């Protein structure tokens, strides 16, 4: 299966799931493990395409937000269209404030990695109590995914291909199938690689010659071998980091790194 086909198939699945009102758009570093323990499907639905902004007037932000807002307001993203509501982290103040202006759907701010407040919010939306056993099971599978991606990154494979497997696998909604897909690209080869910390690689990864590492800033997941479990895992994976990216998305208001800007 071509990688783009994975996302196209996910569009159809999201539209089908929308009939159950169980689809949520996630913007930023939001713990999908908690969201999905309530039976919802959390989909990272930020925009990645420059062409969608053509003819769209409000292009006053970073390239990623310009694309995301265009997809939203022009009705071109099945994920956003299918979503019951949005959950957005607090890494970018502009993203949260402008999203609230641009959608009639509810926008919940996931602030300071406060997973307890997120659980309370999800209990209110789902009208069901938090299921610790289900959460722990999903966390263990999430840890296996991170371990598999770590092994994939060590393989003697083109860095662009590695990122494609990592990024597009997010659109395989069944977690077991996602894990199997990632493991299917791992072999016994090994090659050291230079690593670049990036805010969000989708849309620009073909311009970066290094292995992309996300999950420190405004998008992506931080993948590594985790020893922690349960809520300690959430605290570790989605905590804040006092780091600067090696490259920034053009128009970013969070960082100002000279000659390190990449446009979509």
Name the helicity range: 40-55%
Tally of helical segments: 10
Roughly what fraction of the amino acids lie in strands?
5-15%
Please describe the biggest sheet, giving its number of strands, its sense, and whether it closes into a barrel: 4 strands, parallel
Spatial sequence of strands, sheet with the most strands: 2-1-3-4
Structural Rg = 18 Å
Number of strands: 8
Task: Give a structural overview.
- It is a single chain.
- The mean pLDDT is 93.
- The chain starts with a helix and ends with a strand.
- A four-stranded parallel beta sheet has the order 2-1-3-4, with helices on both faces. A two-stranded parallel ribbon has the order 5-6. A two-stranded parallel ribbon has the order 7-8.
- Helix 7 (132-154) runs parallel beside helix 9.
- The chain is of the alpha/beta class.
- The protein is built from ten helices and eight strands.
């Amino acid at each position: 299966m071509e990688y783009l086909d994975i996302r196209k198939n996910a569009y159809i699945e999201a539209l089908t799931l929308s009939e159950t009102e169980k689809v949520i758009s996630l913007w930023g570093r939001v713990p999908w493990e908690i969201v999905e323990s309530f039976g919802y499907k959390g989909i990272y639905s930020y925009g990645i395409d420059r062409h969608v902004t053509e003819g769209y007037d409000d292009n006053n932000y970073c390239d990623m937000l310009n694309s995301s807002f265009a997809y939203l307001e022009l009705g071109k993203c099945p994920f956003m269209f299918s979503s019951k509501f949005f959950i957005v982290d607090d890494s970018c103040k502009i993203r949260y404030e402008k999203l609230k202006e641009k959608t009639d759907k509810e926008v919940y701010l996931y602030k300071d990695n406060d997973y307890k407040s997120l659980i309370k919010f999800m209990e209110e939306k789902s009208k069901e109590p938090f299921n610790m056993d289900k959460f722990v099971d999903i966390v263990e599978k999430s840890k296996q995914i991170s371990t598999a991606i770590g092994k994939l990154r060590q393989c003697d494979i083109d860095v662009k291909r590695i990122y494609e497997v990592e990024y597009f696998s997010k659109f395989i909604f069944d977690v077991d199938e996602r894990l199997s897909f990632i493991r299917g690209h791992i072999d016994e080869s090994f090659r050291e690689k230079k690593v670049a910390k990036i805010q969000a690689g989708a849309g620009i990864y073909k311009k970066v010659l290094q292995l992309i590492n996300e999950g420190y800033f405004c998008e992506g997941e931080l993948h590594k071998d985790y020893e922690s479990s349960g809520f300690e895992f959430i605290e570790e994976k989605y905590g804040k980091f006092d780091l600067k990216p090696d490259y920034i998305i053009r128009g970013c208001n969070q960082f100002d790194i000279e000659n390190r800007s990449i446009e979509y």
